[in-house]
Every structure is written in C-alpha cells, then in structure tokens.
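Q: My labmate handed me this sequence with no annotations at all. I'd like to see what the chain might look like in three dimensions before we decide whether it's worth expressing. Could you predict it?
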Amino acid sequence: MNKLKLLLSISLLILGFTTELQARENRIDYEEQFFCSDSSNDPSKACPSDLNGWVATKIKLDDPNFCDLNLCMGPQMGPAPSAYDVIFTIYNVDLGTAQKLRITVNPDPFGMRFSIPDLTIKSIPITEEDIEIANFAYEAKRQIDIYEASLNYTISNGRLFNSDGEDLGIDFGDICTTAINYSYNDNTCAGDLNNQIRDTAMQNLHLIDDMRQTLFVSVAMKTFIFFVDWSGMSTRRPIFKFDDGSVLVIDTEVVDGKSVRITVDADASMTASGETLAGYLGSPNQSPGSLEEAISYGANTFEKLNCEAANMPVETVRITTTRVRLPGGTWRYISVYKFGTKYVTLKLC
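A: Here is what I predict for the chain of 349 residues:
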C-alpha cells in the first residue's frame, strides 16, 4: 500500500513537471519584429552579423529587470524575477528572407539587476505570414531603391536618360547641353528642366504615398513603416550629368504635397573643368572649360566680348561660329576658338 502511494506520488510529480514544461513551451511572453538592410546608410538598421550578441543587446534594452551597473537607479538587487520567453522575427529586406528565434530569458536567480541574463536561443520555423511579410518588405524596398535611382540622370545629345541608361523620351535639343545653361536659363533650359523635375517628384511621391497607405492596412507591416524614412521622401537631390563633364545638383522639396521647391546646390554642382558652379558664377574672370560653356558664356557676356579679328593668331583654332540668343531676346553671332586647352569666345562685329 505504501509502495503504491509512493508510485502515485512520483507519477503525479512527473505529470506536474511535464505539464509545467508543456505550459512553458506553449507560453510566449511577447513577440517583436525587426527589419534590417545592409544597404542602409543607417548603421542601426544593418543586419546583425553576431546574432547572439545582437539578441543579448536587444534583451538587455527591453528587460526592465536589467540595468548597467553604473546606471542602475534605485536598488541593484530585488526579488528574483521569473524566466520568460520571447520570439524575435528578423526580416532581411535586401534578400526578402525571414528568420525566427525563440529566446528563453533566465534573469539572475539572486535578483542582481546588473547581472546579464542567461539566454537560450534557438531557431524555429517561420510561418506563411512571415514569408508574405518578407516578400512585401523586399518589394517595397525595391520600389524605394528604384525611386532613389530615378533621381540620377544623364543628358546626352539633348536626350534625357535615367541611371540605367534608359531613354526617357524627353528631348531638350540644344537648349540644355551644360550645367551653365541651367544657371543662365539659356533658351528656357531652366524652365524646361524644372518642369521635368516637378513632374517626376510629384509622380514618385504619389507612388510612395500609395505604398505607405498599403502598409498601414497590414498590422504586421507597421514595424516596417517605422523602418523606412518616409519624411525624407519629400526632399531629394536629383543629379544631372552632361556630355561636357559638367554636373548639376538640384535640391527639391515637395511642399504640402502640391508644389515643388527647387534650389540649385551650386557648391556641389561643377563645370566641365571641375570648378564648382558657385566658384565659376562668382568669378569676374570666367574661363569656360568646354565648347558648350564657351557658347553660353558668349550669349551671357556678349557686350564684354572682344571682336573677332580678321587675322587670328596661328595658335588658335576656330571651333564654331554660331548664333546665340542674348538675355534680352535679340540674336547675335559669336565665334569660339580653342587656344591650347582654353576656349576663347569672340563676337562678330
């Protein structure tokens, strides 16, 4: 009889222990989602290379029972907290993959708040929802990257190309052949280019806004919303490169979702010779570095030009004689010569 009672007691003890383990296995105290990208400019968003160290850091930041020894406020010891379980799901938006971890956190048994908790980390299978979220985050990141790339242009032979070399079907003809043309608004270059900048900025902003609204519908994707710098989407820096080597950098800002503020960054923009646009425009002795700049120089400083002589020095080579439109709207003829590596612009008198 006593042996039967002993066996029954042991059985109940084992059953209770097993039931406790099962309950512990099924209990999750909280779950968190993390999105990461190795192509982000923000180091805090990089994907973890040391997974265990990354998890430990996250747990320490989240655990109210833990504090650094020198930063503990109040008592550094207290009642020993219970162990708890956490699930972390990490989404790599560059690859469209997901990784799920179950972490069992065992705080210091003596209640020492500055003692690093003991962690048990194991991988668990991802769900269909995880796969869906990973794919959506990947596609959203890809669309944002396309948006970023769309801000880098080349104007070659008057045609506008994107960063992939795709002809965008816009022909500026010979009105925008160098960055200087934009600064002087030669032949409405600035106006035509600004119209293109405004159209592109508004179209892309609408696409991004639609994407953000789609993300808000999904509760699971709300963490991703905070991963993306949406506020920066309204402020961008399109860059235009020209055949003569000059570069035009524009700061744009969509204001109230209706208009686009456009400003030239003259310190980042440069002429064909590599001088900053600010330096060139501010110099009393401008020296064009390309044929295109020499023509623009002639149109905008016509009255200051020397007349073309009947007999030019033999060291000079005439590159072209062309008609230019002056700022007042009248047309005049100029000749551009090359003297060594320098361009010289003269007017026909």
